[in-house]
Amino acid sequence: MIVAWLLFPLVLLAACVGCGLALDWAAGWRLSGAILPSVGLTLIIVVASLTTSREFTAPLTTPTVVIAALAGYVISWRRVRRMRPDPWAVAVGLGVFAMCAAPVVLSNTQGFLGYFVLNDGVFHFALINQLLAHAHDLSRVPASSLFSILHGYIATGYPVGADVALGAIRPLVGQNVAWIFTPYLAVIMAFGGVALDDLLGGVVRSRPLRALSAFTAAQAGLVFAYYLQGSIKELATAWIITVIVVLVVATLREQVVLRGLIPIVTASVAGLYILDVAIVPWIAPPLAVFAVLFARKVWPTLRRLRRRDVVIAGIGSIALLVLVLEPLLSTASTFFTVASGVLTSGGDLGNLFAPLPKWEMVGIWPIGDFRLPVIDHYRLTYALIGVAIAGAVLGVLWAVRRRFWGPLLLFVGNGIAVLYLLSRGSPYASAKVMMVFSITIILVAMLGTAALHDSGRRVEGWLLAIVIASGVLWSNILGYHDASVAPRARFDELAAIGERFSGKGPAFYNLSDEYAIDFLRSEAPVDPALDPPPARPGFAPTAPRQAWDPDNVAQSFLQKYNLLVLGRSPRFSRPPANYQLAYQGQYYDVWQRTSTPQVLEHIPLGGPLYPSVVPPCRVVVAAAARARGESARVAYVLRPRIPVLVPTLASRPPNWGLVGGDPFSLLPRDQPGSLVGKIVAPQTGRYQVWLEGSFSQRLRILIDGRHIGSVAYQLGPPGQALQIGGVTLDGGTHRVEIVRPANNLTPGDGGSGRLLGPLMLVPSGTGPPAVSYVDPADARALCGKPLDWLEIVR
What's the number of CA atoms in the CB half-sphere (13 Å) around residue 512? Predict the structure, then answer.
C-alpha cells in the first residue's frame, strides 16, 4: 500500500516536475509552478511513445525519462531552490488524490478499481508490459489469449500514450503494473484539478472559492465514475484538453518567440498519442484560436526577418514535428477506420446497460453505478441538476461580461466538440464525450458562484457553491460505496505461479477472468472469458462466464496444455490421470501433465453441483470391456460426496435475487439480513468450511450459532471458492447462517458482481483426490461407489 499509494505518486511527481523544468528551460519562459507537473507528464508521454515505437529503443524508455528529469533539475536548480508551492493548489491536488485513493486505501485490498465493471484494464496491463519490453514485436509471444489481445490492439494502431508513460515510471518502484495503475489515474485526476485551479487564476478572486471550484470540477460525478472503472484513456483525454487550454492562455500572455511554443506543441503531440486523431475535435478549437492570435502577435517580428530564414525555420519545424509524430502517422489511418466503425455504431453499448441520459453530463448523478437511472431521491437529483445548470448559465454570462477568456475557451471549445461528437457517436462513445464535458459544465457552474461572490453576494455565492459541490460529492460517495476493488492477494498468487512455471506452458485457466492472462503471461495462458474452450459431448454451458470444470472441457482440447491452473474448489473434478499436482496455494492448484499414463478415454461422471456420483454398474462394466479390448487398465477417482448447503434452497431476504444460468447461487443485494439453512455432517469430526461466491461487503458465517469466519473484499469470477475456517461438528443436521450486515461507509459496500454460492464442508486432512487403477476383470468392484470419473489408460 505504501509503495503504490505513496512512493509511486511521489516518484511520478518528481519525474514530471523534472521533465516540466526541462521543457520550461527549452521554451525560454517560465511556466506556472502549478502546471509544471502536467507539462512534464506530456513530455514523458511523448518520449515514451517514441521509444516504444521500436523494439531496440523500448528498453531505453525509463533511462531516457530519468535523464530528461535529472537534466531539468540540474539546469533549473536555482529555480527549484526558490520554488514555493501554492498551498491552495497543493490542497486541490491532494484533495482530488485523496478522494480517488479512498476506495482502495480504505478497503485495505491494495488492488485496482473497475474489476468486473470494465475489464479493459487487463488490456492496458498487457500493452504496457509488451511495449516497454519489445515494442510492437510480438514474435516472442506464443499463441494464447494474451497474443490475441496484443495483436488486436497493436495491429489497429490503438493509442497508448497514457499507458507507456506509466510503463516508463514503473521500473523506478519495482511494482507490477496492476498495483500502480489506479494510483496513476489518481495522479492524472489530481494534475487535472491543479490545472483547473491555474485556469481560474485571475478569474475567481476568493482563493478558497477558486480551490473549491477546481476541486469540484476535477471530480465531476461522471468523471469519478469513469475513474472507478479504470478508464485510463478517457481520464487522460480530459486532463490533456484542460492542460492545452491552460497553455494557450499562458503562452499568449507571454512575449515568446518560436521556441516558446515548445510546451504547447509537446502537449498537443501528447494529446495525439493519448487519443490519436480522435483528440482533434477537442483540441482543434483552442489551437485554432491560439494560431490566429499568436500569428497576429508575432507578425510584426516575422516581417522584420528575412523570408529565407522564416521558410527554413518553418520547414525545419514541420520536419521535426513529422519525425516526432511518425509512429502515430504510420497507424493513424488504420486506427481511424477501426475507431470510426466501432464508435459510430448506433447500437454499440459497450459496458453500458442503455444509453446514458444527457442530464448525466451535468456531473451530478447520485447512484452507485452511473449506468443505472436514479430512482431514489430523483426529485432532489433533478433539482440539483437544475441548480448546476442555472449556475453554469450565470457563470458563462459573467465570464463573457468580464472577458475571462480562459474558462470561456474551455467551455466553447469543448462545447463545439460535444455538439459534433454526440451527433455521430454510438451510445458508448457518447458516454465518454459526456464524461469529458462534465468537467467543463461543473467548472462554469462554479463560475456562477464566483459571479455572486464577486458582486457582493458572498453568502449566496458560497451557498450555491456548497449546493453544487454537495451534489457532485454525493454522487461520488455513492460511487465509492459501489466501487469494485480487485483482490491483490489472489492476483499476487497468480503472479507467483507465473514466475514459478515460467516457460512451462501452455496453460489452461478455468475461471473466466481476463486479468489472469496478464499475470500468467509467461505460461501462454488461454482464458475462457476470451477464448471459450470446446465442451465435451453432451455438455452445454449455461452462462457466458461460467467456470470450467476439467470434466466439461473436450479432452482432446484439454490434453494440449502442459499446465492446468484451476481455482481451488471442492466442486471441481480432478484433472485426468496424466496430470499431477505441482502446486497448491490458497486460491489455486496447478496441475502439470506427465508422460504416463496415456489416457485413451475419459468418462466424466459428476453433475453440476457434485463432482462425483454413484454411476450405474453398466457404465463401469462397459468401460472395463473397452479397456480389455485396448489391453489397458481402468483408472478411477474414489470421491465421497461432501455436505453442501445450496443458497437457493435456503431461507433468505426477499430481494436476494437468482442468478441466470446458475441454479445454486444468489445475488445478495443491498438489503441486510441472513440466509438460513441446514447442512448434514455425515459423521463426527473436523471440517473445513468453503464458501463459493464473489464478495465485497463482509459476510459472517455461523454454524449452530458459532462464528466460523467471515469473508470480505474477495471479488472473483463465477466458480471462485474460498476457505473460510474450520469447525468440529457432530454427525447430524446443523444450522448454518450467513449474515449480511446493514450498509456502512466502507468502500464497495454495494455494487454489482457480488455472488453467494454453495457452502461446503470438507473433512479436514483431505488431500487432492487420488487416482487408483484396477484391472478390467476386477472393475465390478467399483459398482455402487461414488466416483469422480473413469478412464481407460495404458
Answer: 18
Say if residues 461 and 729 touch (Cβ distance below 8 Å): no
φ/ψ bin of 512: left (φ > 0), alpha (ψ from -120 to 50), beta (otherwise) = beta
Q: Which domains does the chain have, with CATH numbers?
A: 2-340 (no CATH), 644-763 (2.60.120.260)
What spatial distance separates the first Cα and last Cα of the chain, rounded to whole Å?
Answer: 52
Q: Beta-strand (E) ranges in 458-611?
A: 507-509, 525-526, 563-567, 579-584, 588-593, 599-604
pLDDT digits (tens, 9 = 90+) for 767-784: 889 999 999 999 999 999
- Across the range 82-89, mean pLDDT stands at 89
Q: What is the DSSP letter of 1?
A: -
Cis preceding linkage at 616, omega within 30: no
Distance CA 717, CA 697 (A): 16
**Distance of alpha carbon 232 from alpha carbon 96, whole angstroms:** 16
What are the φ and ψ backbone dihedral angles of 637, each rounded to 5 degrees? -125, 115
Place of cell 468401460: 623
Between 141 and 182, residue with greater pLDDT:
182
The residue whose grid cell reads 452445454 is 540
Question: At residue 596, what are phi and psi to the nearest 5 degrees?
Answer: -135, 155
At residue 346 the predicted structure's pLDDT band, cuts being 50, 70 and 90, is: low
**Predicted pLDDT at 765:** 83
Contact by Cβ (8 Å): 657, 699: no
Q: What is the CA radius of gyration of the chain?
A: 30
Q: How many CB atoms lie within 10 A of CB 153?
A: 19
Can you name the residues that pair with 583 across neighbouring β-strands?
Answer: 590
Half-sphere exposure of 246 (CA within 13 A, CB side): 29
Stronger pLDDT, 407 or 316, i.e. the higher one: 407
pLDDT at 223: 96
- At 631-641, the pLDDT tens digits run 999 999 999 99
Tell me which of 567 and 340 has the higher pLDDT.
567
